Amino acid sequence: MDGQRILVIGHTHPESGATAAGVRMLQLLRTFKENGAIVHFAVATKQGRYPDSLEALVAEIHEVRLNDSSFDALVKRLDCDIAVFDRFMTEEQFGWRVRSQLPKCKLILDTEDLHSLRLSRQEAVEKGISWDEDLWYRHPVFTRELASILRCDLSLMISRAEIDLLTGVFPWIKAQLVYAPFQMEAPDSQNDQTHESRKHFVFAGNGKHAPNADAIQILRNSIWPELSQRCPEAELHVYGAYLEEVPLGSDNYPGADRFIIKGYAPSIEEVFKKARLQLAPLRFGAGVKGKIISGLQYGLPTLSTPVGWEGIGGNSKENPLIIKEISQMISKAAELYDNEMQWEAALQQGRELAREHFANADNPKESSIGFHNEQAISREGRLLRDLLRSKAFDSSRFMSKWIEAKNSLLKKH
């Protein structure tokens, strides 16, 4: 990768203090830089409230416009070897433009999580039905996301569980998937705060993210009214950016005064080192949850669902921090909050399951993407990639051109 030029195209400007996606983007940019690449970052949206500074990681930041041929000129001028898209929608919008200007440029999709998987699970929850893979296949985003993966030369996957799901449907796609987990700093167990020195429950999550908004409502309306009576001295603190986006129910119940919306935390490390237990009743979602990895990094165990722990490891039999039903969270949370031995054992077991997501893991592969071997892709993969890149199947290209033409006409009138 030394000396290669990489253009990273982001859906939004990274906000690592607000989202796990922001943490992920900073890790990728840092990996590229440390491996000798010359990195450019392009984004089409305005910065949010909590933008990260990228000056030390990228050569230049480019503000670009959607559905505008000015992007074509930028791509041609930069003449990059690799283009990285931070989610499938970004590839839909800009992938065809990169291909048209730089046919030899390698295209890499960072899936972050499988959006279609998350959305199909959300649909199941909202409809009150059980989720199965057929529901995933039928979701309208599934074919769009799969097409984006197939159009790219490589896709970075943060979760082994999602690799298994994709290869279960298309075994030959495995050569196009690279497992690139979170890389948090390794836990320093010698300096962990003790169970006794910690207090209160906590939840951390961006209020704009639907799984987090749902979890906060579950905590407030279904869990905390009873849990607050089981743990009468404890409080439940909710941290996160954009929490004003979350509609909350009535606070007319005992313990409501100890359910406290704290808002954005400049340092989640300080929060997690003081709390005793994180509660994450996630009913839907996908990928790997940054809140759980960060919690383990700072000595904070997280009680969550199979969806919450997916991609990190374990099941309810081997991981004491997994609860199958939301209704089980109350008794298990009270038990872990009060029992130091169980709390300590759960923390250590969770850390072992999450070991590969810490910086001392053996298997991060982001640095290998610059040395991609075209022949490793199966014949089926190459054929489908070429087919989906052809104009006959590239609907996003013509939709973008139509929007650009329409905008041009509007400017003239």
Automatic annotation (TrEMBL):
Q: Which domain of life, per UniProt?
A: Bacteria
Q: Mind listing the UniProt keywords for this protein, alphabetically?
A: Transferase
GO molecular function, a single term: transferase activity
Pfam families reported in the protein's UniProt record: Glyco_trans_1_4
Protein's UniProt name? Glycosyl transferases group 1
Natural source organism: Robiginitalea myxolifaciens
